[in-house]
Amino acid sequence: SAGGDSGAAGEPSDELNYALPANATPNWLMPLGISGKLATHNSSLIRAMYEPLIAYDGSLGTVDRVADADLADSVEFADDGLSVTITLDERTWSDGTPVTSADVAFWFDVVKANRSEWASYQEGAMPDNVASVETPDESTVVLTFDQAYNQEWMLASQLTLIVPIPAHAWTVTEDGGEADPALAETAEGATAIWDYLMAEGEDLAGYQGNPLFDVVSGPYTLGSFSDSGHVTLSENEAYDGDDAAGIPTVNFLPFTSGDAEVAAVRAGEVDYGYIPTGELDNAAQYEGLGYDVVNWDGWAITYLPYNFHHPDMGPVYSQLYVRQALQHLVDQESISDVVWHGAANPGYGPVPQQPDNKFLSDEQRDNPYPFDPAAAQDLLEDNGWTMGSDGTYVCETGIDCGDGVADGQTLAITILTQSGSTETDNMFAEMKSTFEEAGVGVTIESAPLNTVLGSIAPCEAESPECTWELPFFGTAGSWYFGGYPSGERLFGTGAASNFGSYSDDEFDALMQASLNSGDEDAMQEYSAYGAENLPAMWLPNPVYQVSVIDQGLTGTEQDSLGNFHPQRWAWGE
Amino acid sequence: MSITPEAIPATVAVQATVAGRRTRSPFLRFLLRRIGQSLIVIFVVTLIVFALLQMLPGGPARGVLGVQATAEQIAAFNQAQGFDRPVWQQYLMFLGRLVTGDLGESYLLNMSVSDAIAQRLPKTLLLTGLSLVIALAIAIPVGIFQAVRRNRGADYTLSVLAIVAYSTPTFFLGMLLIMLFSQTLGVLPANAPQGDTVSAVLLEPQRLILPVLTGAIPLVANFSRYMRSSALDGLSEDYIRTARSKGTPFRRVLSRHLLRNSLTPVVAMLGYQLPVMFGGALVIEQLFNYPGMGLLFWSAAQSSDFPVLLGCVIVISIATVVGSLLADIIQAVLDPRTRGGVA
Amino acid sequence: MSALKRFSENRLALVGLIVLALVVLFVVIGPLVYPTEQVRTALDQANLRPGEQGHPLGTDALGYDVLGRLMLAGRTSLIVGIFAGVLATVIGTLWGAIAGYVGGVVDAIMMRVVDAGIAIPAIFLLLVLSTIVRPSEWMMILVIGLVSWLVPARLVRAESLSVKTRDYVVAARAMGGSHSRIVLRHIVPNTVGTVVVNATFQVADAILLVAYVSFLGMGLQPPATDWGAMLNNGLALIYQNAWWLILPPGVAIVVVVCALNFIGDGLRDVFDVKGRTA
Amino acid sequence: MGEQVLRIDDLRVRFSGRGEDAVRGVSLDVSAGEVVALVGESGSGKSVTSLAAMGLLPRSARTTGSVELADGDVTRQVIGASEKELDDVRGRVESMVFQEPMTALNPTMTLGAQIAEAVRNHTRATPAEARERAVELMRAVGIPDAESRARQFPHELSGGQRQRVVIAIALACEPRVIIADEPTTALDVTVQAEILDLLRRLVRERGTGLLIITHNMGVVADLADRVFVMRHGVVVESGEVSRVLTTPSHEYTRTLLAAIPKLPPGSVGGAAAAADPEPLVVTDPVIEMRAVSAGYRVGGRHVPAVEDIGLAVGAGEIVGLVGESGSGKSTVSRLALGLLPTSGGEIRLLGQTLSGLRGRRKRELLEQLGVVFQDPGGSLDPRMTVGESIAEPLAIHRKRMRSAERAARVAELLDAVRLPSDAAKRYPHEFSGGQRQRVGMARALVLKPRLLVADEPTSALDVSVQAEVLDVLRGLHEELGFGCLFVSHDLGVVNELTDRVVVMRRGRIVEQGETSRVLTAPRELYTQELLASVPAPDPAVQRQRRAARLGLLEE
Ligand SMILES: Nc1ncnc2c1ncn2[C@@H]1O[C@H](COP(=O)(O)OP(=O)(O)OP(=O)(O)O)[C@@H](O)[C@H]1O
Ligand SMILES: Nc1ncnc2c1ncn2[C@@H]1O[C@H](COP(=O)(O)OP(=O)(O)OP(=O)(O)O)[C@@H](O)[C@H]1O
Ligand SMILES: [Mg+2]
Ligand SMILES: [Mg+2]
Q: Closest residue of B to C246, CA-based?
């Protein structure tokens, strides 16, 4: 191993080698992000260096607030739901300066002035929904909202975005400039600071030794950074929080491919790595090498959006019974067990099912449409479809089958899948086989993930690009949620990521309710409605990764939000 | 006049006048023409590559920004990249930047394309360069040996070996080598050196063995076949007979007369071997965790990082074109006759 | 007759021919002798080892019989390889013959296009083309054909340049023979040696390319498969020593490509063509 | 005569896979200071004999008999000797000069280095000494500017000069015997004469034995003391040159000598006979060139090849076109065929201007034209049967002719060129050179053209075969009466065949007129020199001719 003695079989040491996902090299460590830069490995590294105001993740087994890992002490929503008062922990930056409410205000100043460039910006959400930021004293921040919001959502998805940044050090606009906290208070000043920080963020070659990174609030500081992707975090000696580093030096190793990573794992060069799901059948070998093999579940759902605006198939997909029939044909249990070797969990609705959580409805838990080809065929035949001579269902008279269905329409679907994963390929091969056996024609096309994503913009039937039907982009889970698994961005009418243009007023209302204050059951109702009305075809949700962890390593509870928390890791019992 | 050996035969005189009317240095002319051709080729390459990228379905924005990107972010991205302009304008902008040496910014890497390439290229060059040198060092003597032993046991055996090696897909070969040397025998590491600089990479020579071997084996197979056939041609040349008839020992005939003359076709082929070697490098870099150009290209392709994709293809094709230019020049150096021009 | 004799004098070529014939038999007659289910998956029978439940080479992750799959995959690999190789040869031959015969500016332009094509890594073309057209057998033939016609084009051009200066072509021109007659009756037939020899290598290379394409994840839609895809799937299980998933397709590729190369070498003796040149 | 330096006894060579020995019991010997010639038709085993003497036969050859070399007091046996022993002998005791000066030298090595290598192979000379010796040798073989030439590469020298370098290499270690395999065949007559002079001088000066292989009886007469005549792998006759060439005893030698085209006797030293240039009157010309110039594009620029050409061929007339290599003969014939655009002047074919014609009109004109090329192998499409080749003009110009008619016409022509009628179905590679050339003639004449252009139709053939082909041509000419432009570098052939002759040099016509007149009383010095350079197959005549040539050169 890079440390020389911390190999899987070797005894504990001061170092640890963590394998980054294949082809994912850290390339952004600014706690302020611009779009396209906030891959999970980047944000995990950032969190190790800059504690957020509110930490909300799955690192303790359930997805919840982790008060030890954030800078807030207490968070109190006003009774009217129109404001929140946050008191800060008594903490210092690594240079000894206290962390104060001014650092929170500084964050707001900079983000508000540059909101359109900020990666997490969505109109109407943070920071638009915060009407005012007040700092009555050094350790108190009062945020006033423009309206009342669901507190859980506010806490899990909005306040978590706030990362206090050191106003006493970062209010600069050039290298070696004198910090001037007052500068951020004007919009121009805030923009100049933003521009400077972004320019520094883009200068990967300059990361190592950049004085900006000398002032951190988290358990780690940047040890070394090479723009080829090898990053080392070193313990923050001045850390005074509750989440101190367990191992002084953590190496993050980049890999060019999964195969290369496995070779390194088997050579004992990695302490915390991953293996392809196929290797789960081979787990004993890795245990023999001194590793624990653990599934890392993701706080995500995996689905195939139906393109409801497809010129031919759109009207077909719009029929609930068709979606029900198709859902009956997906053998999620077998696929999860055999094709994914257990490294995927069946998912029956719009809320993540692993780990079990309070947002999940019983309807979704119980799978309203279990694998049942006969039931599927009944549904179709009851609605005017007849088995054609080629073994595929045909709708001779369109109107029998539903509004807008063309006469003589065959039930043949086209799935556009992301390429590059044996399991995904096999999953669709299996689905094709069962679908076709039941009389539903399936064509499978594959392309690189980004090509799939590039070709599935929400569209109107008449536009020429509207020829895709069922795109799959979920080899690593289709949609990862923040803390609060609401679905307005996926299924809300007109939402940017509502690729298939699903539109259902009742569903929209449920989603809105889940954001607004008052209705604490809204999420469960949303879950039940989604499970029953099938805005998309639900598929097994693959794990984030299959981890192999040195048996001597502790504190490796895996965060289903996909973050890693190096400070919790430690050698020994 | 006496018996005049000095009397220049008419043929020479004609040739002399012919030569006199041409430019002073035919080699310079040849070189200029080849450089001109190379520029045209590079231009054609940019045209083809750009056109192909335009034909890709969907824009890169959603893929680059991710599933969760908002409509505003996508619009901003498209505007920043000029995708809202007509294609020809985009092409002209691209060409304009290219001539100033600016390859643009990667969508994803948070680096300029030239930085990304500058970071990766030396590593790939090192890998392929080493493979190439080793391959040549083996293939040239083997090819000559086979030609001398034509149609005998050793020749057959080596030919069969070469064809088998040539017929084995690189990824299969690499995997077999890893299985054998790294997993089963445990004598060689399966990961290439992880150093960032060429010198750091060179500090771990044992880690270079497998990747270089994987790269070199198919090349040896290919080159030795070429070398064999060109050495066979060479062996039947009259000058070999002349050399032997003056009592030059056979070994010396091979090293002094045959070698240089039969290298020419091999050198000519080398120039065109570059893109092929690049394809091999891609697989090797993936297998052995060696982040070079091949991988940069591959991940750019997977993630629709068009500027990187374009940059890589253009750098590779420039390298190829320069490579074949170099090959021509080496050929001219090797063979004083080859200065008229090669089509 | 003497051509056949010269071919069979090359032992390896003969061996190559026999091996190829056996492989063709295997993929064509094999499924008749040893019929297996290769359309419907059977997850309950997935991942069996050789010999279990009557599967001589076991089953793969979807429960397909590996031996049967090898036949099916071989059919695809051979069909795609052969047709793509032939397509490349046809395009290349026409392109090269025309460029060489016409000469001048036309030649210069046509050859610059070829140079550019050679300078662009085939892998890029494959990637882009396979994204533009969705993979099916015919599309794969087209795509591989389109990226590999460049070498034959160069070869045939060189050949046609030399053929067109031969006295019989000059004589035909002096007799008043038309361009098309000269190209079709003299130039093309006299490059046929180069073309045929190169075609075998082209087919061999195309089979390898099919494998690469599948390895890079641009393969065919299931349940169709080819050796490259099988090998790629098998390689994922390399640490489980699943040799029955790796060796059969791997060896099949190597054997067929070797056989074709041997045959090419034999044909070269027959046609007396110089070495394979890029 | 000195001691025997090379002695070949009962040499037999068989190539594996061949049913018959290529050489069947050849015995011959060469003494110091003596020139021995080995003659015979192509394929008779001359080269195989010489390679056997050098121990240079390929592995596929099985050799028996004995080849002995005198190495000082020791006798060395070549056959069965180890490679090491052979390396020692080659270059030091015996060395060799090959036919093709263009390919006998390593193109990538300087001339000096190639000669120096020969020196260093057998002496302890330092590189510098060897280099010096190389320059000396180059001077000795008559290469001007030896110092700087030594640093040049073979392609920078003319053929004759290259052959001198090859000879220098052979001389490098003062061997006892030199074997020269057709050392002058690839050279122009004038250059050939120079090389022969050189060889003669070297043998006289150094007392080396020389075994010269040739098929040119003139060369034999010029140089050799004794001659061996080979046929089908055996020596059929041998003896003093003066005897064998004047009173041959073997039938084969006699036919060989009879086949040699003769120059008219008075052709030497006729410079005095110069008179006014005769006016060029040609009635009813089938082709007429006036002040034509033309050239080639080389590397994108125009390089003139011929200038100010004025000639004409009358109907039924055979006009010879002679001149040394590169003088532009082929260029003129290409012009006559319309294969090359003119850059000036006018060409009229059958009364029409060629340059203006296109398409069908041009084709109609070309129909009246036949062409025969030099290389009998290259002028027939190897992938067409002989019948198809002969019928090709019919396929082009008589598209509507029925195939039976075509076949009949082909058969007719095969008969006319004295080939069996079943030849039509066979391929060119199944025929000998002479036969192929006759097929070429049949093709040229299938449309009964009014003009035949023949570019060196016989120069690749053996004398006996050449005689046959010329005979056929003469017969056909009598029968069909076409006008003929006959390109040749062999003045003897031109003398026997043509009515008029045109002499070219460096792209220009230097003289033209009645053949009998030009060859007996040439006006131009160049023509005289050309004539004097042609060796005559009679030793006595050749001695006169050599003297005449020396005289000319001294003028
Ligand atoms: N390497 C070889 N392998 C097989 N046969 C050969 C080889 N070299 C020569 N021969 C055969 O040996 C015979 C004699 O050939 P050789 O070259 O000695 O003829 P030659 O008298 O020199 O003819 P030329 O005047 O054409 O040079 C021919 O029939 C030829 O085909
Ligand atoms: N295709 C060509 N391209 C360029 N130059 C040529 C070409 N053909 C001939 N030449 C040049 O034109 C000149 C005349 O050549 P030509 O072939 O007419 O000579 P020739 O008298 O027929 O010689 P030979 O007796 O060797 O056949 C020479 O200097 C030659 O180098
Ligand atoms: Mg000979
Ligand atoms: Mg000529």
A: B172
